[in-house]
Amino acid sequence: WSDNNAINLLEYWANFDENIIFVLTYHKPDNIIKYLLKSYNNNINILNKTIIQEKMDEWLSYNQILLAFYQKNKKRCLLINGEQTIASTDNFIKLAIKKFPLLKTKFSSSSTIENINSSSHIVPSKYLNDDNEIVDFFTQQFLINYNNHVDLFTHIQNFSDIPLLTKNKKNHAEITLNLLEKTILEQKNLTT
Fold this sequence. Notes:
Layout: H1 10-16, E1 22-26, H2 30-39, H3 49-72, E2 77-81, H4 82-87, H5 89-99, H6 104-107, H7 110-117, H8 133-143, H9 147-159, H10 172-191
Parallel strand pairs: 1-2
Helix pairs in contact: 3-9
């Protein structure tokens, strides 16, 4: 389902048919901040604390329900990070077939695999994978106020069948120094 509210129907479907399997997808909490920035065209004046808080609360609630359902129904579920799964579709297919052998017939046709590989549109937006140091830095600074979200994401990662593999990103001190150097160079260019 692409509707986040469908998460409230998981228990219903689990009870309705014991043969249903579930692929539960989660994303990083910082994607919410990046998504909001993109949605509001980086216009911080329109984006206010209430909107941010509502979306962060929704993220927390959704992922708490997701994790609780997964822990209760592990034998019927795959818990996957959406970004990592898109980046490694083949690993997802292998894992799904290994855990649910009956899926082998579903994934045996090349058209099914092509459809999965071409469905990268399920990631909210391409910008979520951008390596924009400034956005990453400010997003991480913002998340300092959301320890529960970061802790829950880490907890989900520990249970995940396909966790997000982090890139070797620079630490905050390196990013801050790079931004400072860029700013000083731009200032020098403006004054000369």
